[in-house]
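Run log, item B.
One chain of 272 residues. Sequence copied directly from the ordering sheet:
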Amino acid sequence: MIELILCLQVVLLTLLGALASILLLLCIALYHVLLKTGHLKREIPEGLSIYPNLEMSNLFLSEDEINAGRLVRYVEEIDNFLNEYKREQALMAKYISNCTVDSKPFDNKWCWFNVDKELGKECVSNDSYGYTEGSGCILFAFNDRFSQYTENMDRQRLPYIPFRCESINHKKEDIRFSYFPSIPHNPKYGAFKLNLLPNRNIRDDRGNFMVDNEGNIIFSPPPLVMVKLTVQAGVRDIAIRCSITALRIDGKLLHNMESFSGRQKVMIRLKS
């Protein structure tokens, strides 16, 4: 009887080992299939992202705080993001198309976003993005990699996603927001260009999805909006909400956020 039990244990362990090996092989195969087909995606948040990252810290604009070393971090974070953005643009330069603002990317082409032109002359690295002048610029990106929000939007009527920042504890006169790019004829709104959305992975000449050095699928870079903050002297502790917003065009409200699960707003605490 003991011999039978030992024999069954050996058989069971052998079967479990074989099953584990099969599962491991299946996982490896699935990984390569996902990588090849473009379904393996980097952990990049859907919706709004902010640079510098102010998720867990306040934004400081006072001269003392800037001199304390925050200036370096603010500038480095924006520079690092934009340098990587341009690097990926250069990597996919062969697949650039100069789209019109109301067009949609077509097969194996993505629309060009001119970083140096679109983000304005008031928010540049050479001037430390305005932080040495008592103001400051914040960079926002909008990712829609799963076509949750932008695929079915009416690009002819509004070729932009409206974006706006506002103070929720101070008067409008206390802080001014300037957007680069902004919606034409309506500069009170920032403009995420729809011809850059949804983000798309690009195939090379052999039909394979392009990947970076770590094997991650490369997506077309997202649309960007730079926001310059100008604060009145003496104003302190400002709570700011920046969000995708509804906008009336021809008397109709354009808003389509119910189906989008990505980040739609960012809260910032400014200490000036």
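Observations after the first pass:
- Residues 24-42 have pLDDT under 50 and may be disordered.
- Helices lie at 2-37, 63-91, 115-118.
Flagged for discussion on Thursday.
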